[in-house]
Amino acid sequence: MKFEEMKLKPEIFRALTELGFTEATEIQEKTIPAIENGKDIVGQSQTGSGKTAAFGIPILSHVVNGQGLQAIILTPTRELCVQVNDAIRSFAKYTGTRTVCVYGGVGIDPQIQGLRKAEIVVGTPGRIQDHMERRTIDLSKIRFFVLDEADKMLEMGFVDDVKNILRYIPKNKQSLLFSATMPTPIKNIIREHFKNPIIIQGQVKVDRSLLKQVYYNIKPEQKFSLLLQLLKTNKGISLVFCATRHEVDAVERNLSMNGIKAKAIHGGMGQGSRLNVVEDLKRESINVLVATDVAARGLDIRNITHVYNYDLPRSSEDYTHRIGRTARAGESGDAVTLLTHPDYGNFQNILSDRTIRVEKAELPEFPNIRFERASRQSHQGRNFTNHSGGRPHSSSGGGFRGRSSGGGGGRARSGGFGSGRR
């Protein structure tokens, strides 16, 4: 469906046209009319499906300028908070509606000033509660409550904060929740605070026809060298996932030393630094982002051609969120897993989802590259090894035991995996 068929306010349609929005995504087409009709919504869709416009556009159609805060949008991370606020502000360019972005790690006084004038607030739960305690936010006129990336809220331990905020919001609000998965605590919030919600499900899985998923079964000491070779061979914009902040910094540093335009992003960095890194990637002044899972969800990073699992996530859901950063909007993409012995257990967890199919790839030839575990400046006199950037693990059970794929995919080889089809 085209946006011009949705009978939007002329001011909103004008802004969307300038932004190049012509055709609604699946989640937008299903969600916007339902919100316009006053329904509570529970939306489930993959990362990058256009959820912000799905709830932002109808909210802008109903808020009244100059009447105080009427919509609150909760996000789990500061980055997502900024991106949602920027998106809604761009949709509101010609409406006169004011938004304010509220998150921790920065000065609170400008936020207090913004809250006095805004109709829409986008915030993280912790900073919203700070304002509640200071009595610098008035939630008494809230008409729209939005919980974005709800499962990430749960993962980060914000569910109790969300419940506390809900206690101060009028009961007759319209509630909208968006989440890639629906764990039990999220379902409890829906049951307790939503009125007969409409369940809207967009595309949750990645389009297999556009996404090539492969893994390389390698030794730990080969991992960084292979990553470097692949990044030099595969042109485009790449996202490299590591398990810890320390590993992100180490991999980014070694990539930079070997001529790759890479930067790191993780929760240990200052807010300004993190936003600058995202902007550098958008401007393509760098072409590799090394990240913890903070970048897997919420960050508006487009045109990713390759996703590399340097360290594997623990679940199929997290794997899907990661690889969902590529193969978007009809474009193809590659998801590459660098599999070493310590991650066999996590890989088995991922393949327990039988919709995920990862093929084994042939190893290319590549030189063995020195990986420096710590910077020379901060650890002078320390010995450096040629070992990979893989994080230390303790192995349980002594190794991976092959088992039948159960579907004609063959039997996993001793100490490794077969076709990867489950």
Question: Mind explaining what this structure looks like?
Answer:
The longest helix has 14 residues, at 78-91. This protein has 14 helices and 14 strands. A 7-stranded parallel beta sheet has the order 3-4-2-5-6-1-7, with helices on both faces. With 422 residues, it is α/β, with parallel strands linked by helices. It folds into 2 domains: 3-201, 3-Layer(aba) Sandwich (Rossmann fold), CATH 3.40.50.300; 206-422, 3-Layer(aba) Sandwich (Rossmann fold). Residues 376-422 have low confidence and may be disordered. It is 33% helix and 15% strand. Helix 12 (271-282) links the parallel strand 10 and strand 11 (288-291).
Describe the structure concisely for a colleague.
The chain is an alpha/beta fold.
Jot down its keywords.
2 domains, seven-stranded parallel β-sheet, Rossmann fold, single chain, disordered C terminus, globular
What's the domain count? 2
Instruction: Tell me the name of the CATH class of the largest domain.
Output: Alpha Beta
CATH topology of the largest domain: Rossmann fold
The low-confidence runs, each spanning 5 or more residues with pLDDT under 50, are: 376-422
Radius of gyration: 23 Å
Tell how many strands the DSSP assignment holds: 14
- What is the N-to-C succession of helices and strands? HHEHEHEHEHEHHEHEEHEHEHEEHEHE
* Spatial ordering of strands, largest sheet: 3-4-2-5-6-1-7
Structural class: alpha/beta
CATH architecture term of the largest domain? 3-Layer(aba) Sandwich
Largest sheet: 7 strands, parallel
If you average the pLDDT, what whole number results? 84
Distance between the termini: 36 Å
CATH superfamily of the largest domain: P-loop containing nucleotide triphosphate hydrolases
User: What percentage of residues falls in helices of 4 or more residues?
Assistant: 25-40%
User: Which overall shape is indicated by the principal axes computed on the Cα atoms?
Assistant: globular
The percent range for strand residues is 15-25%
